[in-house]
Amino acid sequence: MAEGDNLRRRLPQVQRLLELSGAAALVAKYGRTALVAALRGELEDARSYITAGRMTGAPSPEAILARAGDALRARSRPGLRQVINASGIVLHTNLGRAPLAAEAIAAIAEVAAGYANLEFDLASGTRGSRTAAIEPLLRELTGAEAALAINNGAAAILLALSALAGGGEVIVSRGELVEIGGGFRIPDVIRQGGARLVEVGSTNKTRLADYREAIGPETKVLLKVHQSNFCTIGFTAEVGIDELAGLAREHGLLVVADLGSGVLREVPGSAEPSVGAALAAGADLVTCSGDKLLGGPQAGLILGGLRAVEPLRRHPLLRAVRLDKLSLAALEATLRLHRDRPEAIPVLRMLGQTEAGLNARAERLRELVGAGMIESSEGFAGGGSLPEQRIASRALALQPAMSVDAAAATLRTGPSAVVARISDGRLLLDMLAVADDQLPALAEAARAVLA
Question: According to the model, what pLDDT value does residue 77 have?
């Protein structure tokens, strides 16, 4: 007990710590109040360790100040940080899905810096629509008669069913009762929209006759959900939108198609259905996401005929799920690129890379790191898109000085956060979603786990 009292007495006072040579720089960067609070926290920790018998000597004033500086630096680091995605998953949901094009980033910065004509018509000086700039672009790109943009894809389905099927029945194939992520499932969305779910067919096979037999006086919508985050192969059958549309017309119903991924028009080499094709096949309303294959910000896009879209525009839920001005700016810029220069959209550029280009990037990284082996790799689109499509890529394989799990953790928590992949006891840095200008930072992070 006496030894503990002696150690506690040897701890310096806060004022003494503030007089150390390194304190002035910390005060200049973080402020005196923050530094004093950090120093008091370190002193309190030291007292607790001494009382618990976990400290046999009093820390030096310099050590206490250094730990306070570390605490201030950790506290000032943003919680939401930029990450180098070396996982090989382009639309990594947990990493924010689509990186934005430079034009979209510039558009965000411009409207964020001041006021904007969000709901103001500059020509007439009267109130305007916040999606006035978005809707013509969506109509032009898809051939839709009408369009809406709201804050996410799940909200688009919810709004559609609330406005078009509330109080009635929605018929869905059992094979399309998907989980859309985060534990949320299509049946949950249907119930939240105030509609009743009617399941038809089986998990692997559903025929047009199944829908026909289920139609009753309370039926309002035939819902078609694209299997965007999984695939069913083998002994399977499903009903196309064109067949559903014909059946719906016979009974005065609406066909709503949720495509998920957000392909506006046909993409060469991809089997992913496009919004334009779904509308041409007869869907009354199509919903999809903005931050997947579209390559834009998080958004829910709703496209279709006036008969289907106008009830959504009048529904009170629309205000609760509207887009903010920053997302609108990014979405408009992204849609303009789809119209004029689709090759400038990062996601489309990543998915269209050649193996030679990926190999050259891996070679450049190996030169910067000074170690590792270049290997063939398989990447994926991710984000609930193209689940069957494996993408040929290249990766730099490293054998770190520590365990691979420890190395992966070091990469994630370093100055430049890196998410890599572990395979066969090695650390893989996949080039599919890594930009050229990220290579120096990625190399520096990699060298840290090799030392």
Answer: 87
Residues 336 and 391 reside in one and the same domain:
no
Distance CA 273, CA 262 (A): 9
Within this chain, do residues 281 and 425 fall inside the same structural domain, yes or no? Answer: no
pLDDT, tens digit (0-9, with 9 covering 90-100), for 171-207? 999 988 887 766 678 899 999 999 999 999 988 889 9
Co-location of 183 and 305 in the same domain: yes
Tell me: do 234 and 182 sit in the same domain. yes
> Does residue 70 share a domain with residue 22?
yes
Domain end point (choices 342, 358, 388): 342
Per the structure, the count of domains in the chain is 3
Q: Which of the listed residues 342, 369, 404 is the one where a domain comes to its end?
A: 342
| Full residue range of the structural domain in which residue 354 is found | 83-94+347-450
Judgement on whether residues 283 and 353 belong to the same structural domain of the protein:
no
Q: Please say if the pLDDT value at position 300 is more than 60.
A: yes
CA quadruple 347, 348, 350, 351: dihedral sign: positive
User: Please, are residues 365 and 396 in contact by the beta-carbon 8 Å criterion?
Assistant: yes
